[in-house]
Write a structure and sequence with these properties.
With 294 residues, the chain is of the alpha/beta class. The protein has 10 helices and 12 strands. The protein has 2 domains: 160 residues, no CATH class; 107 residues, Rossmann fold (3-Layer(aba) Sandwich), CATH 3.40.50.
């Protein structure tokens, strides 16, 4: 029997970004490749996710009007209700993303994420229930508290955990491997003082991603997925920010037998692989006996 062709829109299909990895995981787990002949619009990263969303909607409509099966895979944050309103009927959507943890330190950021976004979530939820009647997939469960019981019952959460694949434990050679990203919300959760204290205690710290301007850490910049996996396999610790304890990077670290350092404040948010998390009081960094160098 000939497989049907499905046209998939993605603004990010990279092997190194969270969005790209989520897209690849979705196609793999939903088993598109056995059900459909997949035609992906691109295999790179769009320069603008916001513009890509608009282009993606037009792309899906173009294929839909040509009587084609379509999938809008990413970028798909819950706050962007325009996507859920304007996508063509019967569009398959990828995992919905979004974070729900933020601080009140930055008043503008708090106003947007604490007041504006929840309103947008409700608009999106209304149109999701109206237009997408089958199972709805969420990348994590961070947004669950904003959803109605009706939506929760028809949804599947923590899709990202499907990426977990236990790796063989090997000898650790790096004290700390950290993925650092310059992002307004993420930076507010990033433990700069902890890293400075660990440097003073002569911990060997490697940073991947954006450059971290702390002396005596080693910045490797953007590296390949293969290189990241190799570094994770020989790292003893990593750090998870309060913004998201179960990012792709953290799940990959857990699979590579890396212990995850978190602030004591978030100890009740560790729902999976709890024994792999090391709780530290970030307010009392003079006592780090829990952490041992390799």
């Amino acid at each position: 029997m000939n497989k049907k062709t499905i046209f998939i829109w993605t603004c990010d299909y990279s092997e190194t970004t969270g969005e790209g990895k989520l897209a690849r995981l979705f196609i793999k787990k939903i088993n598109f490749t056995k059900t459909y002949n997949c035609k992906i619009n691109q295999k790179a990263t769009s320069s603008s996710r916001y513009m890509s969303s608009i282009v993606g909607i037009f792309y899906c409509w173009l294929k839909y009007l040509g009587n084609k099966k379509v999938c809008y895979l990413n970028y798909l944050p819950l706050w962007n209700f325009f996507i859920f309103i304007f996508l063509p009927p019967k569009t398959i959507i990828g995992p919905i993303t979004g974070g729900a943890n933020f601080t009140k330190t930055n008043k503008i950021n708090y106003f947007i994420r604490g007041i504006i976004f929840p309103l947008f979530y409700k608009i999106s939820e209304f149109f999701i229930n109206l237009r997408f009647r089958k199972d709805i997939i969420f990348s994590t469960d961070l947004l669950k508290k904003y959803l109605s019981q009706k939506t929760i019952k028809k949804s599947k959460f923590n899709f990202i955990l499907n990426s977990f694949q236990r790796k063989k434990k090997i000898k650790k050679k790096i004290d700390l491997l950290i993925y650092y990203r310059k992002h307004k919300n993420k930076e507010m959760f990033f433990p700069y003082n902890l890293i400075k204290t660990l440097v003073k205690n002569k911990f060997n710290i490697i940073i991947i991603g954006d450059k971290l301007n702390i002396s005596k850490v080693k910045n490797l910049g953007i590296v390949s997925a293969k290189k990241v996996s190799k570094l994770q396999s020989i790292a003893k610790y990593t750090i998870a920010s309060g913004e998201n304890l179960y990012s792709f990077f953290i799940i990959e670290c857990l699979a590579n037998n890396v212990q995850v350092i978190i602030n004591n404040h978030y100890k009740n948010k560790t729902k999976f692989y709890k024994n792999k998390f090391v709780k530290i009081n970030y307010e009392k960094l003079n006592n780090l006996k829990k952490l041992k160098r390799v």
